[in-house]
Amino acid sequence: MHSFTRKLFLYHTALFAGGFGAITVEARTPTGTVSLAYIARLYSMKTKLFGKKVLMENKYNKVEIETNSRRAYINGVMVWLHAPCRKHGNEWTIREVDFKGSMDPILRTYAYAPKRMPRLVVLDPGHGGRDTGSISPKGYKEKEIVLNISYKVKKLLEAKGIRVKMTRTGDTYPNLDVRSTYAYKVGADLFVSIHANAAGASSASGVETFITASSGYDSTNMYGQDQDTFAFKNNTYDAMNSVLGFSIHSNLVKMSKRDDRGLRRARYSVLKHTRCPSVLVECGFLTNPHEESLLNSPSYRELVARGIANGVLGYFTLIKRSLR
Ligand SMILES: [Zn+2]
Predict the structure, then answer these.
(1) What is the mean pLDDT of residues 144-155?
(2) pTM, rounded to two decimals
(3) How far is the CA of 135 from the centre of ligand 1 (A)?
């Protein structure tokens, strides 16, 4: 047994000792990677290669991974990998960090969930005051739209008995450090920053959700560019960031009916410094004519708010189940 094989073997045994019983399969892949065949065996999934995708499926879940790509789909929802799925010998592999920190927490939340129910949600309406955020061609301001959506999310969550606080309640600008510090001071159990997108091309459309990139890997929106890849306080929550991000993103896509741009990774200040599971949602593009009018309409804002609130409620339900 080569030393890297031994290390991987020990890691897998430790990781799955609870959920799967002792695993005695050797993974013959390079250190830091795990083969899709191996993952499929762990989940008792059937595997097939379909065009450029590897499909893995059991009775409960379906995972699709594009080969030589960072795109993966978990139960139909796009999740960006930190690094592309690559072939080593005969095996398609992904990085261990994407399996251990993302796919497995999403599929087996009970093995990662905190041992007590979350109590307080902090919502962070982006921008405010002198910082308007993006401005649409017709002059709609991101700071106003996201404050309105945040109030709708607050109302929906409070109707379900969940405590909610906001980093701003009016047209003010708490700086980015103040927002993370506020969440910590009030004892936030989860943090959701709410934004609207802008792009140079008016064709760009859809919704996307960000969580902190794992240490050592690029942000998905700055892939291959020079950037820091250090660990931050929020990386302690990598697994639950994925669970919260996936729950919110899948509900956001479902309710908004917009294009799915995926659950992505970025070291945004309000994510990386926040000391609880944290997510940043982009509710559509102010630079896309159709989405500009949607973002200006109360009915679309309500749908987006429902998507976010349902995602938070879904996260609460997953933790509640894991505590039984
Ligand atoms: Zn913004």
Answers:
(1) 98
(2) 0.91
(3) 10
CA of 282 to the centre of ligand 1 (A): 8
In a domain, 14, yes or no: yes
Measured in Å, residue 53 CA sits from the centre of ligand 1 at: 33
The amino acid that residue 157 corresponds to is L
Tell me the per-residue pLDDT of 151-210, one tens digit each, with 9 for 90 and over.
Answer: 999 999 999 999 999 999 999 999 999 999 999 999 999 999 999 999 999 999 999 999
Residue 163 and residue 211 share a domain: yes
What pLDDT sits at residue 30? 85
The protein residues having their C-beta less than 5 angstroms from ligand 1 (an ion) are 126, 133, 195
**38 and 98 inside one domain:** yes
Report d(CA 146, CA 142) in Å as an integer: 6
Number of structural domains (the chain) is 2
Establish if 167 belongs to a structural domain.
yes
Q: Are residues 126 and 252 in the same domain?
A: yes
Q: Do 276 and 223 have their domain in common? A: yes
**Which regions of the chain does DSSP assign to beta strands (E)?**
33-35, 46-50, 53-57, 62-66, 71-74, 77-80, 86-88, 91-95, 120-125, 163-166, 190-197, 207-211, 260-265, 278-285
Could you tell me the residue range of the domain that residue 76 belongs to?
3-107
End-of-domain residue from the set 107, 141, 172: 107
